[in-house]
Hints:
Radius of gyration of chain B: 20 Å
Structural class of chain A: mainly alpha
Oligomer: heterodimer
Number of strands of chain B: 8
Strand content of chain A: under 5%
Number of helices of chain B: 3
Amino acid sequence: MAQLGHCQKPVAVITDPNCGSKQYQDSLVAKYLDRGAHTISYLSPKWALYCDSLIAACPNIAYAYQQKAMPLIKCGDYAKAFPLVDKAVALDANRWLAYRGFLKCIFTKDYAGAIIDFQRVAKLKPNGREMDHTYAFYEGLCEMETGNYKRAEAAFNYDMLLQRGTTGQGEIHFNSLCYAGILALKREQYAQAQSYLERCLKMYAQHPEANYYVALVYRAQGQEALAMQHFNASQRALIGGYRLNEDNIFYANYPGQITEYEVVQALKQRGN
Amino acid sequence: MLRMPKQQLRQILTLLFLLLYLPGHSQNIVLPDGEYLDTTTARNPACAKTPFVVYFNVDGKYPRSSATLVEEANLFLRGKNQRYTGSGYITFRFLVDCAGYRQPKTEVLQTDASYQKIHFRKELVNELYAFLKTLTSWQMATLPNGASTNYYTYLTFKISNGKVVAVIP
């Protein structure tokens, strides 16, 4: 990570008239990214140099800025990363606006900023997805984390509506159910929380957070035996390497994500 | 006995006062590759020949939830009985060695809430750094082949009006 501090600034360029051509852009992406940056680790200082070469050749390729920003985000260098992400959004909002919202929601916990991005991109692409989820899903997370529970509920409901699709038969993602359950728990709507979390566990029995939060639901209702059963299940799952199964959990904690420490603390509270 | 003129004495006392007072407001150590709070490299000989990876290669996030870290950080800050100000992000980047010990060399990055470089008041940075030093449960990491490894990692404190509101990652 220390070596990531050496990214170069894009060189001033004379714009190639071919840069307006999608075909030409694709050929440059293939040259500098597919056959260049993507053949090495993105933690290598050369990664940024490949991106810079692409930017120098055609400064209007949004993907080049996003690719340069990506390792910086993962290493906490927001001052360098976000101007690049902003540039990608300015060049191609349709593709990168939701990505920026995702970064703000999951990585930098800028919930207000993320909501703005997701609401903007929802107008551009009402049925769009980012990292396997609807925009409404992230909006729900952001609203929940800022304590706007009614808006969070509306967003999660819309997320699930979109997933059910026009047929109404589409399968709901287990993390949509998990977060709807966590939200209901925060609102002390225990029956609803239990229902969502148990549905989540039917799809993914080892889900550590679903087990942990449903245990809290049972504990809140005085059902300590069931609570202990699920706390233990959560602990076993975490020890066994089960996680809430999102691609980016290696880089950033999702809202409400727990570790074994929190489960152990909850187990210690038995009978209190 | 050597007598010192009053004016000279006053100058020396002023200088002494500044020397004692200024460390709290002084700049960090600025190197070509970044700004550091500590540049000490204290390598564990047992880890000298082990590889260096990054936290996400080895599931090396600190083994506490972000909510727990927020609570602990604010508790730590409250114990100092100081009022802190500012909003944005304070990030510490450092190495955890193959035995699970955080190494002292620590880079610090600071931005406002819009990701523009700024400097928070040094007291807050120092206290968060002091809090970081209390975190001693860094995990020993191993590679898929079972070999132990050193790993680079970071901890970011999101600050809102002088209060920690999130800890990343």
